[in-house]
Amino acid sequence: MSKRDSLIKVLLIEDDPMVQHVNKLFIEKIEGFAVSGIASSGVEGKTLIKVLEPDLVLLDVYMPGQDGLSLIQELRQEQIDVDIIAVTAANDTNTVKAFMRNGVIDYIVKPFTFDRMEKAFLQYKEVYKQLYRESAISQDKWDEVMSSAKKETLNKVVEGLPKGLQEQTLNQVYNYVKRLEGAQSAEEIGKKVGLARVTTRRYLNYLESVGKVEMELIYGTIGRPIQMYRIKG
């Protein structure tokens, strides 16, 4: 059986035995996936990644000895090829940004439902299948593969929306920035979407923290630099 026809191998890295058990049950309910191993620490997880060569790792952030972020950084530095979904109670934007910058494909905040995990895994499976179906892929085909994931982009972001931010307003700001050909300041964007500059910046900063927009500083001849925002990618 070729790799593209086989089950997607998942390694669990989680220090809590009860959570290990629950996550294993969740994964085994999702068609196309199999748990190939379970590690209770980052150090053990790295060893099993090298031995078992899983396709996907479901990784907890806070563990004794070595946390999830430092493990990911080591894997990237050593060019160990594995995809990672982070599962954690940490929902501060700095932590989210750190994981996204190190190539995490999804970020699930505890407590979570089976439906949320299933969505992450099924979305991953669609991309995985396409990448192993052909030895080469055209731009049009890649866009087709990613289209379903892009449709779910803000659904994933909204699930972790901080208190005080509204889904409808988030969509409004995101959709406006997505149409921009260049970058604009929070004040300019706020005027277009009907929001105060401070409110607009809160939404833009959140979208930046989850990797949907990027900010750059523009320095003038006098005064403070201006924060300019554009869609990421």
In short:
This protein has about 230 residues and is α/β, with parallel strands linked by helices. It has helices at about 15-30, 40-50, 70-75, 95-100, 115-135, 140-150, 155-160, 165-180, 185-195, 195-210, and strands at about 10-15, 35-40, 55-60, 85-90, 105-110, 185, 215-220, 225-230.
- Domains, number: 2
Beta percentage is 15-25%
The CATH class designation of the largest domain is Alpha Beta
Mean pLDDT: 84
Distance between the termini: 36 Å
Helix content: 40-55%
Q: Let me know the largest β-sheet.
A: 5 strands, parallel
CATH superfamily placement of the largest domain? Response regulator
CATH fold group of the largest domain = Rossmann fold
> Strands of the largest sheet, in order across it?
2-1-3-4-5
- Helix and strand string, N-terminal first? EHEHEHEHEHHHHEHHEE
Q: Which outline best applies?
A: globular
Gross CATH architecture of the largest domain: 3-Layer(aba) Sandwich
Structural class: alpha/beta
Number of strands: 8
Can you count the helices? 10
Q: Low-confidence stretches at least 5 residues in length (pLDDT < 50)? A: none
Q: State Rg.
A: 20 Å
